[in-house]
Amino acid sequence: MKQAIGFIPLRKGSKGIPGKNKKLLAGKPLFKWVLDEAVASNLERVYVYTDDDDIIYSITNDYKTTKVEVLRRSKESATDTASTEFAILEFAKTINFNFEVFCLLQATSPLTTAQDINTSLLKMQSNTVDSLVSVVRTHCFIWGEDGKPQNYDIYDRPRRQDFKGLLIENGAIYCTTVNAIKTSKNRISGKIDLVEMQEDTLVEIDSLTDWAIIEQLLLTKNNNTKL
């Protein structure tokens, strides 16, 4: 098995939803939804990379497993303008690229499951791909600004059951190899595979509307689990 690590970047600052990463979502801080699933997955180690003292304190006190490690990110990588790639490379250099498979997991995708992560890892173990990105299949009809349909014939409108739909990146999981990331300095590159996730994982939390939608989905799932 290739050494696979998880990476969860968390910034203290959030303009859309202040304190978003530690705000309670369905009774649990947002960041813990994906972190708990990462801990339950087959990842060998999970790193949380943050500048938030509250999150550092919470992880240090709440997670007694050696599988989780929290590292303080630099001020430069925690600005509004810093890219995720900047944080990834800064982190990778900090641990001397000590991994074979790198999995970026996003706290803004709290519906990600350990099974989604494990499916991704299995694909990355195959030695046939360099990177992987999670996607969702949607059955939307897409239009261009020129008023022309992009993915169907208006005179032969397909029924949903006959329409394969489109695969859309959902921002939840990105995996890559150490060699690929060193070469491209990007979260995905080279030969890219896909892992298809459930349709409800298309929503990422970027606004209070997204928050309300995801919270209701989580509450409904939890209630169904208890039945």
Tell me what the structure shows.
- This protein has a single domain (4-134, 169-226), classed as Spore Coat Polysaccharide Biosynthesis Protein SpsA, Chain A.
- With 227 residues, it is α/β, with parallel strands linked by helices.
- The chain has helices at residues 30-40, 53-62, 84-94, 114-124, 178-184, 208-226; strands spanning 4-10, 24-25, 28-29, 45-50, 68-72, 101-105, 131-138, 166-177, 192-197.
> Kindly state the mean pLDDT as a whole number?
93
The number of helical segments is: 6
Q: How helical, in percent, are the residues? A: 25-40%
Report the count of strand segments: 9
Strand arrangement, major sheet? 5-4-1-6-8-7-9
State the domain count.
1
By oligomeric state, this entry counts as single chain
Query: What is the CATH class name?
Result: Alpha Beta
- Strand percentage lies at 15-25%
Q: Helix and strand succession?
A: EEEHEHEHEHEEHEH
The computed structural class is: alpha/beta
Reported for the largest beta sheet, the result is: 7 strands, mixed
Task: Record the SSE blueprint.
Layout: E1 4-10, E2 24-25, E3 28-29, H1 30-40, E4 45-50, H2 53-62, E5 68-72, H3 84-94, E6 101-105, H4 114-124, E7 131-138, E8 166-177, H5 178-184, E9 192-197, H6 208-226
Parallel strand pairs: 1-4, 1-6, 4-5, 7-9
Antiparallel strand pairs: 2-3, 6-8, 7-8
Summarize the structure.
The protein is an alpha/beta fold and 227 residues long. The protein has helices spanning 30-40, 53-62, 84-94, 114-124, 178-184, 208-226, and strands at 4-10, 24-25, 28-29, 45-50, 68-72, 101-105, 131-138, 166-177, 192-197.
